[in-house]
Amino acid sequence: MRLAGKVAIVTGAGSGFGRGIAEAFAEEGAKVVVADIDEKRASDVAKEIGSRTVPIAADVSRSADVASLVQAATSAFGGLDIVVNNAGITHRNQSLMTVPEEEFDRIYAVNVKSIYLTTLAAVPELEKRGGGSIINTASTAGVRPRPGLTWYNGSKGAVIALTKSMAAELAPRNIRVNAINPVMGETGMLEDFMGMPDTAENRARFIAGIPLGRMSKPTDIANAALFLADPASSFITGIAIEVDGGRCI
């Protein structure tokens, strides 16, 4: 098993990409803290995966909640090796002039501030294990931004920049930091990204810009996260890998 003996935290693990990552990690031998702002979804996913998991409700924009994630990992499993900062939100596809200030603030709190908070809480525990892997879910929106999602795009651009800077600064501690850039995926936020109903016709409009001809799936992102968490990628840090079917070509 590729992650045997490893302990991981996955945020936003109650659905979508996060759920796929948590499932893949557990299947490969990791013990997983399944974190989500929705307590029931976290519990349901943990129950389905099995005894190698601990569910916890957490708002990743709150320092106390993030500290509880790390405490859950160390209390239940004795340490921490991998952190996946996957939790994220967006505003609905619309003019940059119409996104309310409170929504803008929430996007940056969840998508950006959360990485600051998890870094402060998790790095000391990763160091105790001799190093580790931090994986941030960014987006192709941070590489090839398009109108309608401007403030979300900016938050994901920040994630990519943070990933590279963190990688350089944490490398002497043997902590690798990488990011994943998914293209639009089959998740609960799909209609927000599209700004229109999720119909076959509307999907086709977006899929037309993806050379491989489909949206991303949780398994696509999970496989990338598994590679970046695997000790086999021990010489890889500071990358933002595009899992996008060729969207960014």
Key descriptive features of the protein:
single chain, 249 residues, seven-stranded parallel sheet, 15% strand
How would you portray this structure in words?
The protein is α/β, with parallel strands linked by helices and 249 residues long. It has a single domain, classed as NAD(P)-binding Rossmann-like Domain (Rossmann fold, 3-Layer(aba) Sandwich). A 7-stranded parallel sheet has the order 3-2-1-4-5-6-7, with helices on both faces. Strand 4, helix 4 and strand 5 form a beta-alpha-beta unit. Helix 1 crosses helix 8 and helix 3 packs parallel to helix 4. The chain is globular, with a radius of gyration of 17 Å. The two termini are 34 Å apart. The mean pLDDT is 96.
Helix content: 40-55%
- Spatial strand order of the main sheet: 3-2-1-4-5-6-7
What is the name of the CATH superfamily? NAD(P)-binding Rossmann-like Domain
What are the low-pLDDT stretches, counting only 5+ consecutive residues below 50? Answer: none
Overall domain count: 1
Q: Which topology does CATH recognise? A: Rossmann fold
User: How does the helix and strand content classify structurally?
Assistant: alpha/beta
Between the first and last Cα atoms, what is the distance in angstroms? 34 Å
Helix-strand sequence: EHEHEHEHEHEHHHE
